Amino acid sequence: MADEESMFRSQRMSLAQLYIPLEIAPQTVAELGEVGKVQFNDLNAKVNAFQRTFVNEIKRLNDMERRIRFLFAQAEKNEIKVANADPLAPYARTRSQVEIDQLDASLTELESKIMQMNNSHETLNKRFLELSELRHVLRETAVFFQEAESRTDVLGPGAHQEDTHLLAAERESLDAGERLRAVSLGFVAGVIPRPRMAVFERILFRALRGNLYLNHAEIDDPITDPATDAVVYKNVFVIFAHGKELINKIRKICESMGATLYPVDEHPDKRRENALEVISRLEDLKHVLDNTKAARHAELSRVAALLDQWSLVVQKEKAIYHAMNMFNYDANRKALIAEGWCPTTSLPQVQQALRTVTERTSSTIPPLLNEIHTSKEPPTCQKTNRFTESFQGIVDAYGVAKYGEVNPGLFTCVTFPFLFAVMFGDFGHGLLVTAFGIWTCAYEKDLAKKKWGEIWDMFFGGRYIILLMGLFSIFTGLIYNDIFSQSMTLFTSRYHFAYHNSTQRWIGEKSSTYGFGLDPAWHGAENSLIFTNSYKMKMAIILGFFHMSFGIFLQIFNHVHFNRRVFIYAEVLPQVLFFWSIFGYLVFIVVLKWLTYYPDPSKAPSLLNALIYMFLSPGYVEMQLFPGQGPLQVFLVLLAFITVPWMLLAKPTLLYLEHKKTIGAGYGQPAAHDAVHINAEAGHTPDSAGATTQAHANDEDEDDHGGHGGHGGAFDFSEIMIHQMIHTIEFCLNGISNTASYLRLWALSLAHAQLSEVLWTMVLVPSLNMANAIAIVIGFFIWFMLTVFILVLMEGMSAFLHALRLHWVEFQNKFYGGTGRQFVPFSFKLLFSENSE
């Protein structure tokens, strides 16, 4: 029972069957969605989505959702803020059918009213645009006509084209208007977008061979296009030409270039009257436009507080009917039959929800729940909280645990930040990371509402990981005695230095052991890098050995849980003997050498040579560490070689003998679709006297896990041998490569320390030596920014990824399959959290 309430393995699951009366089906599913503890199975997987029972209801809700999106868009377009609704508030409850009908009618009426206002506003806006452009045309053409009156000779005998007599000035005494009519001079006036003006002008001059007079002016006021609501800048133009053919040609060119032409009278008095009339109509039209806009704004403001609530209600109703489409419909009993997975400990909560629905609806026929015992593999439901959720996410990113499998997430809560800190260890950098983690955790309720982008969401989601990584980095920084690459003298140094004339160096002699961590005397010593290299390299090997050994031992819990105890002797024991006879011996001699005092360090035995000669020359020891080292190494090598065929043959042989025993007892190979009761291997036992135990013919829809050895299907000894051979070779080779992989702990720690020292000596120290306040401030600022962005962020991300690799590849592959499927309950809370993302 303890495992069910912890992260050690997934919660125990039960397959529940529900009989729900049709008249209270939506209310029942809605209550289960509020509880959020049942994952429904699709009993209509082979039925087309458009042929399911409640497809018409979903279509109707989709249409309602479309109307709500339309109203959202209109509110945003009119700069009206829509109030955010709380999915868990009472107003977001599911509604009855009558309330849904009323909501549908209200949305239809609102959509129609807003669309009618939009159409009226667009029509009035187009007319307002036309009148505005006409006002600009009339104003600007008054100036153009004055210029044309004084320059009619431009189109006269002086023209350089072949039609030199196009505008001959015959009657100088006539007024300007009469002279234009005397030569049959026509004109075209209109507006055109400003970016097209240059192209428009070139096309006209080439098409008419220069037989025209064009004048244009910019409209200072921006014009809003009613179709797109985009701001457009336009020019007014007037084109004078001789003859109807040229005028018609100009009109066609204007239309092709997107220009808008407006009629302009050639008489000044008439133009003045038209201008006054246009101004009067513009004022009236503006008044009508303002009223229309105000009415639309008032209508949208009235529903702005309700839009998000309506959206939540419609989304809930859609989710309810989507879930009901997965149920079987019993026409005779007028009931829906549902199946779903639920944590066994949550069954009382589900039953209470069903009773609540019965009391609320006053139904004479209550919904029934039966627990079914089956051979189907349940989904995996890991019990998490705010702290462990992010660590579980790291494990699930590799693969979801198989039902009943040991969950690495429990141990990742400690090992992940610790291995990160081994690579990132620095007291100062750890303080920066911890400060950020404390801030995000202390104000998590307020910060959870912030929408600062995907990067922020990633950091905030891993706030507890960051906090632990910072705390562990502070611890390893104390062990390394590093604070921004400088040493801390927490205790008095245990080294006493004396000057040696023979070597002309100061040499420290150790008097006792330093209180905690690395003695500060090592910082600045000539052989500091040699010492820390050796120390961190061996520490990485030791940590890797125990981390992987722990992973191997965790297989025992899996084999015991799945009733495969014999595999402990066939798999786990030879793996432990192989791994410990080689790498366990390496760790032993590393620790032994640490504990042995050598007056002359140059005469200390080489551990690398000892390991090499252990295999190349069994029994030969170059420099003996302890008595009997040679015979012990021979024994360990023989033991390692013996475990290889042990791993290769023991498991297939046991499976073959078990298969023979089964056949000899008269049992044939069961068919893949036969229904069987759950056995001890799946971890299910009947625990309810009132539960209904049934076998289902649709078990073939789920993955079949029968057969020997977990392979399913008919017994195939050759396939099992091939699989075991691959597994044995992989384990033996990975024992070497994975151990070497833990050397990244040493490499990244060394790189981090050296880069921190470079920033200190090359950026901060020179500014401090200047003894200038401004230089010190600038130098400190540059050093701090480089420290944060390079050492904390970039190096921190590198250490995070390497720690991730060590857990996924080196640790989890020793015991973790990750072949399960995630438990995804029907939950409104989960639905709205996904939508918000």
From TrEMBL:
Localization in the cell: Membrane
Top-level division of the source organism's lineage: Eukaryota
Region called Disordered, residue ranges: 687-708
Positions in coiled-coil regions: 61-127
The UniProt record lists the keyword Transmembrane: yes
Membrane topology classification: Multi-pass membrane protein
Keywords: Coiled coil, Hydrogen ion transport, Ion transport, Membrane, Transmembrane, Transmembrane helix, Transport
Main location: membrane
Alphabetized Pfam families for the sequence: V_ATPase_I (PF01496)
Transmembrane segment boundaries: 418-439, 459-480, 539-557, 577-595, 632-650, 771-794
InterPro entries: V-ATPase_116kDa_su, V-type_ATPase_116kDa_su_euka
Keyword Ligase: no
Annotated function: Essential component of the vacuolar proton pump (V-ATPase), a multimeric enzyme that catalyzes the translocation of protons across the membranes. Required for assembly and activity of the V-ATPase.
Family listed: Belongs to the V-ATPase 116 kDa subunit family.
Name under which the protein is recorded: V-type proton ATPase subunit a
Name of the gene encoding the protein in the UniProt record: VPH1
